[in-house]
Amino acid sequence: MDSAADVGKRISTAFCQFKGRVFLTLALVSVSSLVVILTVLSGSVNLNETPFLERPTSVASRPPQIGALQRTGRLHFHVAASTANKQLCRAIVSSAVNRYGPPILAGWNATNKKDIGKTHLAKVRVVSEHLDNMAPDTDDDLFLLIDGYDVQLQLGPEVLIQRYFKVVAAEDERIIQQLGPALAEEVAGPLGRHVVFGADKVCWPTDQRRPGCWAIPPVPGMDDRMFGPLTESGDMAFLRPRWLNSGTIMGPVKEVRSLFRATLAHINATYRPDYEFRESDQFYMTEVWGLQELGRINAQLEKDPKAKHPSHVDDAFWPKPGPESNHHIAIDYWSNLFQTWAGYTEYVDWRTFDRPGHAFTVDQNVRAEVTFRPWDLHLAGDAMRAIHRIFASTKRSTLMGKTSDKLILESQFGSNIITKTTLPIYHCTGAKDALETFWPRMWFFPYIRTLMRSAIASCRAGEAYTPQPVDGRMWYPALPYPEDIRLDDAGAWSDGSADSGEVEWLSFETLCRPFEGDIFG
Question: Is the pTM here over 0.90, yes or no?
């Protein structure tokens, strides 16, 4: 068994905070603090033997601002869930085989106002509390939050992180085009630090007077024929994805913290017991987003009273945003990170890309085009590289002797024929039966047990997410798997939201044994 000092060193680059007694909690703190507080975590890896993350040797080695050259970045991965079911276990397993590392279950076994099973506002409360307890040297790390009961992960953090920074660059461009460079930095800066949400095709809860429904930007780059001649005709299938969905969120820790604080403050200030959607986290987050966009519109109009801005109904609400209304909220319009399901049932499917050039022939006229001709959709290169790395580091004998090239050609992949993207994370908004349809078609489904073992071994070996730096950093999972677990124990960490305040490792057997038939088939 490792000493407390070894345990402290091992986990210090991952997470932990002091809650007034000796136990592990979820936040990054210094090595010196952890040596004192971590006296009970058996079987952790000795840092000197198999480093999970590279040890900082000086203050200068801590992550600086995003965009600057630096050595190490961390992804803090959270799943909002209070209890286990088969969909939560599928989310955990799909993240494990894609090598995200173990997630934190936000709100696990929590009660009352922190019980996600009773109120969606619990997600805001427990995540905000956790973010407030994270150390300042995590501010430039990335934070990923997904809903626990209707999300499945198809591609790994290698793809997600690379695409995140591309989405951020595109959002910078959109803002500069809207406001001009000086005003963009003044009212929306610092640029390059966006909190990206999945995109919805409708504003929900629906009330066209709300700023979160009307004051938000048009979808950049999608013209009025993006969904065919019926684009924006009223049918949800032909609407452009303009609005915020709160089920998938990714951004820098500092900005996510600020956003959750603002959302919680808005809940506390405006909560109405008689309002139908009073327990919707998405309602309050769209309210905060609407205020952000109103602040930008007001700045435009102050500079140029004739400046163009989104149209609105005659009785639209136009409150005056406060001075701290910019929370860097952005939308993943093109499904580069997150793919919602509602309104996309005709366009998203799992397909085999086995034609020359790793292509699939789209031969159905789902956009109702007058002059439709079949065309080839190609599997994304970043997806193939990431999956090749996983297959190539897994013993071929456990994959029925097949090469990674053969496995990729035989597997099915979820893709969007409108945006032409191979989707990393699938969020099943709307009808949930699609979760049952698509799970056995995931590329990893035939090899789940093998890939879980391979993933945990990779994490223990201290392997980075990406072979090269992204945004100047080598990226790693924020949390380790415990050393004393089996190689197929793709479990998760609790977050300390339960009444006991305890943080513990939740083994795969503890969480998912009742649902193994639904996971492995």
Answer: no
